[in-house]
């Protein structure tokens, strides 16, 4: 039995989790420079303390409806994939949860392909399900193309 | 672990750390590998030098010491197989050293092969962390045989002349395991190893444009009894019997040693420490950030009058600049590092082909960024091989033609204005113009009529054209021909240019011009579709102002936009619409940037030219790599991120409308500069330091005006000049104008606008050869040249013209500032 830390976050009302060890920082994505001709998931590039970070919109990546106009300012979690810095733009960050491996389940088989690929598994929390995302496939160019 | 490798449809729980695909290589071994790889490169070229000049005691000592060190370290690390090979090699070298054995090409070949074997084992070691399985008894017994047998033979046999035929043909008895020299690092995905490249190269027919109709030499060599890769230990007597036939060689490459001579024994005395590349890259990033922060600070302080910060900030600014230079220097490596393998390559080729070839290298010390160095290593090797193999005639043919028997391949490198120029020349047969002409027509690259109208140089350039190379049908090399077009693509990818000059019967010279570094480039910041973009200045030839009031107007042919420029039609690409940022309309167009990519020239239409800035190029994240139109991104002084446009990809995206070819391209200048003509130069002083000079032809007019007349606004200066406002720039930004008295000005005219450069004193007008020798240490200077006995800095007029235009654009975009050209 082992315990694992997850940063939990919300996108379009759904609760997601990312392995806390993978999350570098949480920030407001401001000063975005759009990248013309790029895929719709790409929100733009920005300067985060001297690093160039590519912001990817989680809603679009997951095929959810766009953020409503009156929604509060979005947040981004900083992740590193293949040595590149990314910011996954999400609605809000909840808390860091310690979860037991025993409560972990493989994702159900009836997920849409776009989701099945980027989900590592599911935790059954008391109130709701926590979907664990895999930052690697989430932000990998090859998977993005296939999606 | 690659994210893409997970093919298992049932995702499993993933642990936080990744597992390396190979075994983890122990630190000690890793260090040993780096060190040994370096030593081996030295041994390679030292051995060739040694073969040419067996009496050179120092060279032999050096080789002996290196091999000895390798052996020692192997023993220490418990690498038995390596140790055994190194030991046998050392024994043989020891014999040479004691004078008990004479140096023969056979013996040197054998030692070289044992070096190759060591490299092979090292490669295995690097990949798996263990010595690969294998048996070296064959090689070792040969080495021992050579060491012992020779001792006996030495007193009895008379030396004989080395025959003109390939050495291999003389010693078929010595069966030597074939070991390919290996790359020191593992290949990256999509990369092709040098071996494969060369294999493909050999497999391909000699490109027939290179040669007269006899490509036999290559075919013959291939037919020769090649040593088999796996063999029984050969009879010891065989090499012994064969060896005496050869002799303390009158080497086939005498001049080679001379060319290498000045590098002698530098290793022991160099004071250096080994720093990992990661640390250097880290430093570079930090300094880049510091430069950006400094730029931000400078921008803030410019807007404040009082500032007590001004002086210390100025100092900080200078220091940051110096720090940046120093760190850049740590990334610099002499180009000789990319040439180390060439003596060996040429020596082997020389033996294989039975040609006598001298390799001459000049300017090995010329430094360039290690990143650039890595990128040109393979193209250079390929071209040298090409020259030696196809460029040079066989020895008999040379003699018949009354040429010196030894063919010559010459490599030269030098700095010129922020670039490094590399020349690869041979004194062989030159390109076969008639055949290339036929081929162009045959391949449909141009019509017969077009070809007939071209001069030789234009015809020759077609060997760089995609689809020209004869090797096009070869192999598994990702379906591409290994030809000059690949070389050209590689060079252009790093912002370089390649050109050639060939004279029938006298030889061919390739000239490559590449930027010294890719990390920092000067860029123009332009606006299009409400967004800012950076364009590398190297590809911008000129800026043209267009619009309703301007002299130049954009016109339409069908739907394609063109610009009439000096009686030629320039095809245009509109940046905003191409990036889908705005609809295509002529109204938005204010500037056309004339961009040259290879032989293509086109105009990039932008709304605004905002600034010039030195930018630090950062690669885009891999998720954005499919947007090929951007080559990277950078952070500007104001902290915003801008994308860097790739002029090459832009021209491709813009499609087939770019049919316009440049007739006499600017590249001709490269070829001409070697001969040199006297040029009228204006000498002047400005901003202290060395006197400065500029070609007189660039200057429209010299003016002396009263200093009070200069108007200053917002930190910039301008002058009412012929009814218009003309911006005045300074040679050095930090340096102010004269407050009173007379201010001398050099007036330059760009495409439809004028600008002036303030100087301290105009010294003289002289005529002299312009031979730029030293590279510049800052933008705006092309380099240093000696003019009438004085070292002068040569001004880069284009740099100031672009800045002048940016000033125009920035200050009053609405007002027409055009001055009539004189």
UniProtKB/TrEMBL annotation, chain A:
CheW-like domain location, by residue?
Answer: 3-144
Q: Which GO terms describe its cellular component?
A: cytosol
Q: Which Gene3D superfamilies does the entry mention? A: CheA-289, Domain 4 (2.40.50.180), SH3 Domains (2.30.30.40)
Could you give a single Gene Ontology term from the biological process aspect? chemotaxis
Q: Name one Pfam family in it.
A: CheW
Highest taxon, organism lineage: Bacteria
Stated name of the protein: CheW protein
Q: What organism is the protein native to?
A: Asticcacaulis excentricus (strain ATCC 15261 / DSM 4724 / KCTC 12464 / NCIMB 9791 / VKM B-1370 / CB 48)
